């Protein structure tokens, strides 16, 4: 917390010497002793898991870059050479490729936790906004990285996504050419994508520092969602170490087991088989789909009949997250005490999964095969197109209508006065 | 106050029923995920599952089918002769940890001719391949490959089992699945019908009933019974050859699969033990701390 005072006392001569010159040990000790709400549940462990994901991606990525060749004629074979002839190369590459998916699993759970417990609300708006920025940078980095193996999905994914920029009126076309380094996706595109893919993770790391700084200033939220009064600090807080290092550590190991199952037993299950076909600009794949973690946004893009409108909706779906702290009017943070909002949140979860599912389907395909239907405007009502539109509508209604409206209208359940009230026996609560 | 609460409850009811409706759609949706091609048959390969490993005899037979049948049209540019002697590979011999010393591999390489230049004069020449050389490609370039095959370039087979969904089963089914095209299917002489090939035959279907599954493939049925003489005496049926070459391509696609699975077993056992110890220390540290 901001009013958390440093309790570190340098004991040895070298510590005292350092403490007046570069108080880095004090900084570390203060973080280790950070008073942390004792009621944090396992949904709070994804921050640590995400730090691990970022480090894993950076370390494996640096090694991969030592062996990878960013050239359209050589990239595909150089990735396969890593898998075949570089010592442990298959492991490094599969950890990196699956690591991206694991990173997104963790970040989505981390964001949903923030959403459910109202962690974006005052005084934590900056933690949330920097977090949204990190999420946006992650999407950009993942997209750039997916292009590098120069398979069919790499190439055609890059084609579809860069084309979106071209949908911007007037300036779209020149920006598109500037971004691609030419009129079409080619060697220049691959080179700059490689350069940017190497750059952005370090920008993310910088944002993570800001994210943690903001967290240190505003303090952690907790499942009850109340700010802990000053006089309850001793009773309701525990030092981060060892209580939460061991809890985070346990969660990290469980997460690593999931990670290992994918890396060692299903290394290609989360990718698309077409990306093992070398890129061919003359042959469009039957069905261009992005990686699973972008499917909900891809679905929103396709839901809008107008191309530029689709781009606006897709970026809007991420952009709306940035202003969430001001869209939610509720005085109560945690949805534990907001039953109506909680129901809306559960529907929102289904909608996100539904959008992801729709993003992987052909828009014209029927949702229920064989069911008679009719044409509504530009498509059959019984099609993924219309299901996507329904789900997209809810996605935006959730943030733009339900968040402001329910906050003013709903009657929340009574919120405990302290976080220990629900957990501590009554006798211990006084103090 | 009371009426307000009632309204909220009814609003919740609507929301709950909406949730149920969305949930039902989500359950119903996967039912339609049907493609145009027939679902591949099960090859029941030895390398399936978390403990499956490649059958070395099958890999050797598969290599023979590849070399004598497939390699006349398909390249395998990511494969070197030395790979044949790699650990878990078709000619791996623990006596030769360096596959370049393996006499079988050396002999197999020597059978092939590869283009090179004379190191003194720089003139083009052909020489015997060494273990360090790649499998020779039947065509000098992609254009020549397409020209020799009616415009359809035979794809490189190095990672084919990873480049198709359910790779090994797909290759096995495709190669052994050629059937007489159903009457009513409009096709040219350069096309061949295969029920396992991806595609949509609706525009070419003039017969009665459902559009047949599968698609057109430029490659004619490549395997005939007895086409290859197996060194181990196995009978060379089409089914056998298709299965063996599918296994071989599965290996060339994922040569490190066995090593990967073995390491994974150790890693997961370690992580489970580590998780147990960490959980025990978690319980100990949090003992008596209400949370």
Automatic annotation (TrEMBL), chain A:
InterPro entries annotated for this entry? Cyt_b/b6_C (IPR005798), Cyt_b/b6_C_sf (IPR036150), Cyt_b/b6_N (IPR005797), Cytb/b6-like_sf (IPR027387), Cytochrome_b (IPR030689), Cytochrome_b_C_euk/bac (IPR048260), Cytochrome_b_N_euk/bac (IPR048259), Di-haem_cyt_TM (IPR016174)
Provide the coiled-coil residue spans: none
Residue positions annotated to bind heme b b562 are: 96, 197
List, alphabetically, the Pfam families matched: Cytochrom_B_C, Cytochrome_B
- UniProt xrefs under PROSITE patterns: CYTB_CTER, CYTB_NTER
Where in the numbering of this chain does the Cytochrome b/b6 C-terminal region profile domain appear?
Answer: 230-417
Cofactor mode of binding and number, as noted:
Binds 2 heme groups non-covalently.
Q: Carries keyword Electron transport?
A: yes
One GO MF term attached to the UniProt entry: metal ion binding
Q: Which GO terms describe its biological process?
A: respiratory electron transport chain
Binding of heme b b566 occurs at 110, 211
What does the record give as cofactor? heme b; heme
Q: How does it assemble?
A: The main subunits of complex b-c1 are: cytochrome b, cytochrome c1 and the Rieske protein.
Summarizing the function annotation, the protein's role is: Component of the ubiquinol-cytochrome c reductase complex (complex III or cytochrome b-c1 complex), which is a respiratory chain that generates an electrochemical potential coupled to ATP synthesis.
Q: What's this protein's name?
A: Cytochrome b
User: Which species is listed as the source?
Assistant: Brevundimonas bullata
